[in-house]
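Appendix B. Chain record.
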Amino acid sequence: MSKMNFKFHTDHYLKVRGAREKRGLPIKTKEEILDHPLINKQIYNFEEKKVFVIKSAWKHWYLGWYVTLLADNDVGSTFVIWWNNINCHEPIIIEDIELNQKRWSLL
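Structure tokens predicted for this chain:
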């Protein structure tokens, strides 16, 4: 996971959420992807020099959608990996997704 400071634009988030709620639109900010092709696949972390297994995949929303993976290893370490961008416009999330493509490798 990123070691940088993370800042959400809370005002924008709450404005969009409130507008969606008023219109009766869904306000989900995450949704599990039960059939994601990477579930149960191994992934290697170059910084930790350890292999993890992807346990679940989630579609998250913050200024657009992106996919996160939840992975753990045999000693109980868990990582949340921002894996790919669908249509998110938040520069910090986009940057972290790009960094994770270098930090992690599918086996």
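Further analysis of this model is presented in Appendix C.
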